[in-house]
Structure formats: structure tokens, C-alpha cells
């Protein structure tokens, strides 16, 4: 279902920001799926190797972590060389990543799903040319060929690798195929890749110099294994090719028989199951201890006795850990002194048939120690004092009422602090209760009905772990004059807002990709009106003069609830949304309002929009021309500040230009007098795209993905999103292109998506 206007059947979904409805999302159906393997790599770091040096440098953009199928979905693929970095427990690259983001990368290591019970033994990088959607030891050979000789074409590099692996012009090997499973499964190529992985790890200094020779030797070894009747489907069979003349220009291959050291899943699962069944380990409480049987945990056909090394990070917890024979013993303690997530790592050496150590193999057991959290407590004396204040309030039907309560002393937390207060509910029609972030609750409004005392005013507090709620009793509402219904601030007026979506209203799917549109909406007389989307809305806002899908609304206790009825897959559906005015947005445009659209009783995200009172203010963001001067190529938006729920007025400027190396486009984010970096961009936005009818590359259609760089300009930093259009041969004059920045689902309620259009005139201005 395509995302259209607020009124159409799919608009109900659009209000919720349904990812599946928007072609610009990073969904697998519309994004690019990158797969990494010799066996599928889980938790490998995919990055853009911008300097093409075959290693991850801390300044290079990380695109994400692969899943258990070795996959990562991108909204659009970057134009530079793709690369994959494997991680091992306590490895150098893992430590660098933890220094950048401990929450994300601590305890994260790569697993080759050929051996799902153990961590990878090597930190290693594989690359792939940008035209490939897979990254493997085979694509790595092509990337290495291209890096060694920048003058060589990708096709020539593929031909060299194809020849080294035993292919021919008549029967070429599909170097960019998924040889692990599926229609392109190839056991011999899979085994070749496994041998190359081990060989690259054992020959770090000369592998790239002699990569095609290593490939030829690996292919010959696979042929030998097949001819001798070996089971090449055994993932533990990992011969290693070494170079007996590492200082020469040519490879002198020596192949050593190696059966990979593996973790016995049965033994590992039994130990993990025993840990899982332990009572919760809690800081401040006693721990009874446990013994884990690890006999036979590691297996290696090349060595009869495997020695195990124990490491852990439980020091300081009060729990002592040691290995006693085939047991890992966690000794009892009277008091556990530290909480957190901890690891017990067991490591053994993988040796080849000659007894040489090739690598270490690890398996990790995780232990969680919980903090002993006491919930917040109600201070009864303060509750009684606040109740006496409330008892003295005078409320009358039809009369405006406003009072405040300071609830900062209502709760206490003995082992921490109160992190949040909230006013949850007030049971008198016409009144609202709001907490301001500083424990001050404002109760205001005009009671619409008389009523007895006893209506609840509920207030809660949380320490970040547990919430506690109390109810104060509101006084009676005396009879008075029934007030006339008050209009909601959104009623009776046409509003204009920008939306990103794929449906262009022409019932033709050819160009249904995500673009920016102007939508209009009007709430009047209980009916929701809107425009009918057409290509005209790429640059113009049209009247909200059509009711669609029986769209209606009502105002209850100051809340505007819009309801839509529509059919999807032959089923009649009804969905409702609260259209909440989060605040005035006069800094963006006179009369504008910040809106949050929340689904009612739906497990969907809320989304933030700017409603413009004047169509010209919305149109100024979609009528930009590429040769416009700087003062026309920007727009103000609210950007997150350092404090929660605080916003800075930010300026977003953008450009589309043609230079000596082709076309390029960018968006800059700038906050006057403050730094604004890619760290904030990455926290609040999931991806950026530049889209247009004629944007076609070998790996995407209609979209170019953007990458963020933090730039220091004189005194302050700003964030710049760059779109590499160098593979685009030409842009059609008068074509409209869209800049879209997609908010992370968890932040879509707090930050609006970035939405601008620009028309290519044949010339660009980037001043």
C-alpha cells in the first residue's frame, strides 16, 4: 500500500509513518540487501572503505551490523568500496568500536554461522566492488585486484579472478553469487572461500600482493579434496595455504592439513542452560555458586588433548571464578558487590596437523547481575498536604480554572533518584493536567459538567525502573452555565504540510518511489477534507476540498481524533489518530504549528509534522531551483538540543551542482552559535536519500543514499550529508528531485523528517 495523503486509505497508515508503505524506507523490498559470508557472518561490521586500503579506519562510515543470515539492509548503497570487518572478543577492532560506542559494541563479536556456537577466530576485512551486493573472500579477490592497479577495469579484475579459480570465458564463475545456500549454492566455491579466509588470516603481510595466486592454490586444494573423497561439506575441514617464500614476488604455496577447532554445541548448551536456570543474581544479595561441566567443550581432529584458558570480567563483584579440571566453578559469596553484564570467556588454540598454532577459538558465557532496585515511595505527609490544597480549589461549570501543584516532594527513592514525574489523568471533563518536566503540574481548562467531589487526579513517578502512582481527590464542580463548545485550534482552516511518499495518484507504478509532496488538510464540521494528490503537488499546494474514505473527526477534552474507513486486501478497516498540537512554530513561519499525529490503539509510531497556515511557506521548500542563490536554498527546522525535549532553531541548506567529476548534492545542518555534528544526526535519523525519475545506477533505481560528515567551519561544527552522483551521466533539465531524511522510528514523534525539493535548471549554485 503506497503512502498518499492524510485522507486516502493509505493516509491513515501514513499518519503512523508505516515503514512498509514508503519506498524510501530501508525495508528489504525497496532497499538494498548486503550479504556477507564465507559462511554467513553474524554481527560483522559493514562499512564504506572510502580510502580503499582494506581496513576499517575510525573515520570511515559504519553502515551497520549483519544479522544471522549475514544480511544488512540499506536504504541505498554508497558509491565507494563496500567492506566487512569481523570482530573477535577483546580484539583490537572491537576495542576501537567500544571506545566509539560502548553500549552498542561491548560484548559484540562476529560469528561465522558455519560454526554458530563460537566467535570468529580472526579480525579480518573482506571487500567488494560497489556493484556487488555480497561481500565474501571471493569478492575480496576482485576488490584487491582493482586496488592493486587503479587503471584496471572491474571486468578485467573479475576475469583475472575467474581464471585463478578455474573458470573460463565459456563457463565463468559467478563471483558475486551467494554460494552458501539457495539456487546458487556451490559447495566447491564455499570450501574455496573457507580456505581463503584461513589463508588470509595466516598471511597478513603478503596475501593481498599474491591474492590471485592464493586463489589458484585454494582452488587446486579443493580439487584435491574432491578427488580424494574428502567431505568438502564439513565446515571444520579448513586447509591452510602458507607462503614458503614470503619475500619473493611469487607465491610458493604450502598446504597444511587443518581441521578447525570447534565448540561442542551439546556441552555449550548444557552449560548455558544451567546458567539460565539460576535464580536471579542481585547486587547486595547472596549468591549460592554454580559449577559448569565443560568436558569435551572444544573438539579438534588435529590434537588429542585440547587445553582451555579461562578469562572473565567478574572481578569486583565478589564472585570468584576458577577452572578446576573440567569444571568452571563460580564460588558462593555472601554479598554480590557489583551489578552489570559480565562474561566468562573460554579459549582454546586451533592447531594444524603439524602442531602449529593457527588461531584461538572462543566461546562466551554471559552473566547478568541485576541492581537491587527499590521502587519510589509515596511521602504520605506530602500527599496529605497536597490533598488539602486541592480541597480548597473552587470549580464551577463553565468557568475557566487553572492551578498548579509542586509534586517534587511527593515521592522519594532510597536507592537512586526520581527520573520522571507525570500527570496521568484528571477525571473532570474540560480539564487537562500537564507536568512541565520540573515536577510542576498544571491543571487547567473549563469544566463542562457539574459533578460531585471524588474525581481522580492521578500523578506518577519513576526511578527509571519502577513507576508508582497515587490519586488525589478533586473537589466538586458546582453547577453553572454550560459553556459553548470551543473550537479546536486546527478547526475551520486549511493547513499545508510536506509529506514523503511514493504514490503519485496516477495509478501507474512506473515512477512510484518516495518523493516530497505538499498536502493540504482541513477539519471542519466533523469532516476531514484534503487534496487529491497529483504531480502538481511536487511544487504546489492545492485546496483541501475532498472528503475521502469517510474521514471524520471529533474533539474530546481538547483532543482532536480523526477516523478513517478504508479497504485493504478486500477487508474493511477503521483507524483513528490523535492530531495533537505540540506547540506553535512561528519561528519557522508565521502561524505555523508543530503537530504530532498519534495512532489510537495501534502499535505504530507517532510522527511529527509542521502545519503551515500559508501555502506559500510550504511551497518555498519545494519550489527551489538549483541555480537559486543561497538565501532561497534553505529552510528552518527544529533540531534536538543537548537537553531532552528541548529544541534549537536549525537551518538546513542544500544544493545540487555539476562539477568536473560529475554531479553532487548535499544538505547541511547548522545551529547558530552551537556545534551540530553527525553524532546527533545518527541518533535521530536512520537514513538520507536523494531521489528522482532519472537517478539510475547499477545498484539502485531512483535513489542515491547520503553519508554524513562533521565539518568544522571557523568556530563551530556543522553536519553535512553528501550524495555521490558521480555515476549519473546526466540530469534532465526541469526534473524535480527530493531530499528526504528519515527519522528513526523511536524518534519520529520528536523530530520531523527532512523534506525538500529542488528543480535542476542545468546549472547549480553552491555558495
TrEMBL record:
Highest taxon, organism lineage: Bacteria
PROSITE patterns tied to this protein: PROKAR_LIPOPROTEIN
Protein name in UniProt: Acid phosphatase
Amino acid at each position: 500500500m503506497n503512502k498518499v495523503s492524510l485522507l486516502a486509505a493509505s493516509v491513515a497508515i501514513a499518519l503512523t509513518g508505516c515503514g512498509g508503505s514508503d519506498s524510501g524506507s530501508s525495508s528489504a523490498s525497496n532497499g538494498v540487501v548486503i550479504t556477507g559470508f564465507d559462511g554467513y557472518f553474524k554481527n560483522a561490521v559493514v562499512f564504506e572503505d572510502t580510502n580503499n586500503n582494506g581496513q576499517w579506519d575510525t573515520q570511515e562510515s559504519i553502515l551497520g551490523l549483519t544479522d544471522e543470515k549475514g544480511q544488512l539492509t540499506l536504504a541505498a548503497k554508497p558509491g565507494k568500496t563496500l567492506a566487512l570487518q569481523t570482530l573477535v572478543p577483546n580484539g583490537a577492532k572491537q576495542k576501537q568500536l567500544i571506545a566509539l560506542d560502548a553500549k552498542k559494541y561491548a560484548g559484540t563479536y562476529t560469528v561465522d554461522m558455519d560454526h554458530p556456537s563460537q566467535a570468529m577466530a580472526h579480525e579480518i576485512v573482506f571487500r567488494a566492488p560497489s556493484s556487488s551486493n555480497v561481500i565474501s573472500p571471493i569478492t575480496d579477490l576482485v576488490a584487491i585486484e582493482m586496488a592493486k592497479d587503479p587503471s584496471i577495469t572491474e571486468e578485467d579484475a573479475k576475469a583475472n579472478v575467474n581464471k585463478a579459480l578455474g573458470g573460463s570465458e565459456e563457463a565463468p564463475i559467478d563471483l558475486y553469487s551467494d554460494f552458501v545456500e539457495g539456487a546458487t549454492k556451490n559447495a566447491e566455491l564455499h570450501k574455496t572461500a573457507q580456505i581463503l579466509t584461513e589463508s588470509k588470516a595466516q598471511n597478513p603481510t603478503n596475501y593481498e600482493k599474491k591474492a590471485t595466486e592464493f586463489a589458484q592454490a585454494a582452488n587446486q586444494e579443493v580439487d584435491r579434496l574432491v578427488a580424494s573423497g574428502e567431505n568438502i561439506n564439513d565446515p571444520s575441514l579448513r586447509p591452510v595455504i602458507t607462503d614458503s617464500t614470503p619475500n619473493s614476488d611469487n607465491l610458493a604455496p604450502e598446504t597444511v592439513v587443518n581441521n578447525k577447532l570447534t565448540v561442542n554445541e551439546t556441552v555449550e548448551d548444557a552449560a548455558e542452560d544451567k546458567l539460565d536456570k539460576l535464580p536471579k543474581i542481585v547486587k547486595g544479595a547472596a549468591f549460592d555458586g554454580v559449577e559448569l561441566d565443560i568436558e569435551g567443550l572444544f573438539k579438534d581432529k588435529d590434537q588429542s588433548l585440547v587445553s582451555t584458558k579461562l578469562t572473565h570480567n567478574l572481578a569486583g563483584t565478589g564472585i570468584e571464578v576458577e577452572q578446576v579440571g573440567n569444571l568452571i566453578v563460580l564460588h558462593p559469596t555472601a554479598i554480590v558487590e557489583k551489578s552489570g553484564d559480565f562474561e566468562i570467556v573460554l579459549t582454546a588454540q586451533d592447531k594444524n596437523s603439524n602442531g602449529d598454532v593457527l588461531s584461538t577459538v572462543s566461546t562466551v558465557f554471559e552473566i547478568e547481575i541485576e541492581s537491587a532496585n527499590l521502587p519510589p515511595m509515596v511521602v504520605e505527609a506530602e500527599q496529605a498536604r497536597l490533598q488539602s490544597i486541592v480541597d480548597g480549589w473552587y470549580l464551577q461549570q463553565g468557568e475557566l480554572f487553572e492551578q498548579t501543584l509542586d509534586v517534587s516532594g511527593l515521592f522519594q527513592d532510597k536507592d537512586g533518584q526520581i527520573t520522571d514525574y507525570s500527570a496521568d489523568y484528571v477525571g473532570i471533563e474540560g480539564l487537562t493536567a500537564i507536568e512541565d518536566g520540573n515536577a510542576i503540574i498544571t491543571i487547567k481548562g473549563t469544566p463542562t459538567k457539574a459533578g460531585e467531589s471524588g474525581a481522580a487526579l492521578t500523578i506518577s513517578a519513576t526511578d527509571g525502573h519502577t513507576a508508582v502512582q497515587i490519586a488525589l481527590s478533586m473537589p466538586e464542580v458546582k453547577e453553572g452555565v454550560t459553556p459553548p463548545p470551543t473550537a479546536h485550534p486546527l478547526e475551520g482552516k486549511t493547513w499545508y504540510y510536506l509529506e514523503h511518499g511514493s504514490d503519485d495518484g496516477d495509478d501507474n507504478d512506473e515512477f512510484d518511489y518516495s518523493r516530497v509532496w505538499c498536502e493540504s488538510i482541513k477539519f471542519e464540521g466533523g469532516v476531514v477534507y484534503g487534496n487529491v494528490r497529483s504531480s502538481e503537488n511536487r511544487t504546489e499546494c492545492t485546496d483541501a476540498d475532498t472528503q475521502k474514505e469517510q474521514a471524520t473527526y471529533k474533539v474530546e477534552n481538547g483532543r482532536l481524533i480523526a477516523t478513517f474507513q478504508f479497504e485493504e486486501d478486500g477487508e474493511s478497516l477503521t483507524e483513528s489518530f490523535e492530531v495533537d498540537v505540540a506547540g506553535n512554530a512561528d519561528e519557522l513561519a508565521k502561524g505555523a504549528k508543530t503537530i504530532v499525529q498519534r495512532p489510537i490503539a495501534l502499535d505504530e509510531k507517532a510522527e511529527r509534522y509542521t502545519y503551515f497556515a500559508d501555502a506559500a511557506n510550504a511551497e518555498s521548500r519545494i519550489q527551489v531551483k538549483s541555480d537559486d542563490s543561497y538565501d532561497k536554498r534553505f529552510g528552518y527546522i527544529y533540531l534536538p538540543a543537548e537537553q531532552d525535549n528541548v529544541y534549537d532553531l536549525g537551518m538546513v541548506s542544500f544544493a545540487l551542482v555539476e562539477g568536473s567529476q560529475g554531479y553532487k548534492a548535499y544538505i547541511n545542518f547548522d545551529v547558530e552559535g552551537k556545534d551540530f555534528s553527525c553524532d546527533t544526526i545518527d541518533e535521530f535519523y536512520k537514513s538520507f536519500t536523494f531521489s528522482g525519475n532519472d537517478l539510475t545506477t547499477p545498484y539502485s533505481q531512483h535513489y542515491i543514499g547520503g553519508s554524513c560528515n562533521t565539518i568544522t567551519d571557523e568556530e563551530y561544527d556543522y553536519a553535512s550529508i553528501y550524495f555521490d552522483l558521480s555515476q549519473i551521466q546526466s540530469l534532465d533539465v526541469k526534473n524535480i528531485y527530493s531530499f528526504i531524511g528519515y527519522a528513526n522510528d523511536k524518534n519520529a514523534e520528536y523530530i520531523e523528517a527532512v523534506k525538500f525539493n529542488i528543480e535542476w535548471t542545468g546549472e547549480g549554485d553552491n555558495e
